[in-house]
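Explain the record.
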Amino acid sequence: MHWTKADAAQRDQLARTVAGFDGLHIVAVGAPVRPRRQERARAHCLHRLVYELHSFGVEHLVMESRDAVLNARDIVTVQHARYTLPKDARFRVDHLVGAADPLLWVPDVVAGAVRAEKLGDARYRDILGERVVDFPVHVS
């Protein structure tokens, strides 16, 4: 499942499904991003995400796997972000193949809804309601 491949009715159903889950969805938003700067922007967003997740009591982040080199970049980013956390803080990241766990589709839905809102279409974000907390990230 990918948000970008879903039509409006499918996106509506996806947002309603995710809205039924307990908990918060924390989103680091760094936009706009030039195509050549996407990995750099991702690192800035991931760094902020680690900080924000930790503030909500999260110690373990599971991310969708990309490839070995890009996964390693994510791990280095998380290691650097840990320096912004309290000295005894615990935080780790693991990568899983998206098809291995359908719960990894949830971030895609949430990110798609937040992006749609930023582009002027708030209907999916409205469905998710107060379960979404987003933080702006300066990425340029």
Observations:
- The longest helix spans residues 38-55.
- The mean pLDDT is 93.
